[in-house]
Amino acid sequence: MFSTCIHPRFSDTDALGHINNTVIPVWFLEAREPVLRLFSPTLDMQSAALAVVRIEIDYLAETRFGSDVEIRTRVARLGNSSLQLAQEVWQDDHMTARGLATLVNFDPQARRATPIPESVRQALSGHMQTVQEG
Amino acid sequence: MFSTCIHPRFSDTDALGHINNTVIPVWFLEAREPVLRLFSPTLDMQSAALAVVRIEIDYLAETRFGSDVEIRTRVARLGNSSLQLAQEVWQDDHMTARGLATLVNFDPQARRATPIPESVRQALSGHMQTVQEG
Amino acid sequence: MFSTCIHPRFSDTDALGHINNTVIPVWFLEAREPVLRLFSPTLDMQSAALAVVRIEIDYLAETRFGSDVEIRTRVARLGNSSLQLAQEVWQDDHMTARGLATLVNFDPQARRATPIPESVRQALSGHMQTVQEG
Amino acid sequence: MFSTCIHPRFSDTDALGHINNTVIPVWFLEAREPVLRLFSPTLDMQSAALAVVRIEIDYLAETRFGSDVEIRTRVARLGNSSLQLAQEVWQDDHMTARGLATLVNFDPQARRATPIPESVRQALSGHMQTVQEG
């Protein structure tokens, strides 16, 4: 599991008094950065990119300003050139949102999907979602 | 069908040179405003709100800066107190993303779901997704 | 004067119930796009860019969600390779914010400031701030 | 001096490959949170708010994705009901932007400016900009 701490910004709130729902995808993207670093340790966008092809998010409760948030990211599925990440927003011991992101390992030069390298695959398999964790 | 014109902002782009994937949920939220106005013509957040409980987005192609976008929003399902909207991003005659949003008619005072009023239901049914359109 | 109409987004609001102050620079950037088009009609970032070197913003009143906004942009000063734009946010006949942006005509290939072309200078001079307007 | 660590988000970049200039005001707002906590330790927006009346930002260099940023915030001026904060963005030992924010201690109930309490004033005076620091 990858764990990312997020400090909600006041500009993330909306007039209903809570974190706006469009901010959760931004946090999930930020929390996928350690996964991207497995593909490209220096985050060099010319050599490697993870293209998002699908996201799903369930909003379970309001997320508040004024209290830090933990994003938990696990690998839900590992394909040949694609992978699926399960992500959760935790605040004050409650899960306030959860999502699934389907990503494709994308070669920016060739502009097409490319197989996940074996070394990355092995690193990712250590972050697989398990029955105990889920 | 509700149609909303969006002018992509340069700040919506990212270092890959296209509109960042987290911007699509922001555009979809903006394009749901005419639906919200059916519930609350003055957009008064104290009297009515549509709580988002789930979103799904499929990213089909890159969305570019420099060309206007049309968001098409249709009613996919009408429940008792909830509804589902199907939304599409169109740019230069191509659909670049499509999504589903599940919303609940929420009473901000009582803080709970409440049935969709009959008059709103009738107005919404005029925007239902049809076989011809879909 | 360049005039740009902006439709405030619900995600632009914050928990104080109004448009968050960090959104005004985003709107001002969007409203500078017609100026950028004078330098690069196709908005091709490889051939021309206006680098922002300084902004100032005075917040005069709250800007609200639910009512369109007009951004008025005038040329306040025209230098050799730089220019200064005066920008105003108008909503319901009130000016809610005003700002100054100092921009430099930047050659992305050479990575340095470059003189404003004479044809652009003439086009810009038609949008100068005048005593009557100011 | 208040020090705030910011982790740039990929969604903070733009098509020029760097952090978009509109993100700096967002970071500066986030970095003013410890100042706001002096006025309202629980960040309760009903009891206290710091209204922004003016910002100025000088952009000195490009800020990059992939490297953490430190925001340094000092008190530049302490008035009766207002204060001015000097803020700097530091990345890899370089200052990439600096700004000034003028804030007013605002009573949300009475909806008007109100004097800075003596205890807050004393706490703030420990964060004054000094010749040695600047």
User: What is the CATH top level name of chain A?
Assistant: Alpha Beta
Proportion of beta-strand residues of chain A: 35-45%
The largest interface is: A-B, 20 and 20 residues
Question: What is the fourth-level CATH superfamily of chain A?
Answer: Hotdog Thioesterase
Your description of this structure?
Four copies of one chain form a homotetramer. With 134 residues, the first copy, chain A, is of the alpha+beta class. The first copy, chain A, has a single domain, classed as Hotdog Thioesterase (Thiol Ester Dehydrase, Chain A, Roll), CATH 3.10.129. Chain A has helices spanning 23-31, 33-39, 118-125, and strands at 2-6, 49-59, 69-78, 82-91, 94-107, 112-113. In chain A, strands 1, 2, 3, 4, 5 and 6 form a six-stranded antiparallel sheet that branches. The radius of gyration of chain A is 15 Å and the shape is elongated. Chains A and B meet through helix 1 and strand 2 of A and helix 1 and strand 2 of B. Strand 2 (49-59) of chain C pairs antiparallel with strand 2 of chain D, so a sheet runs across the interface.
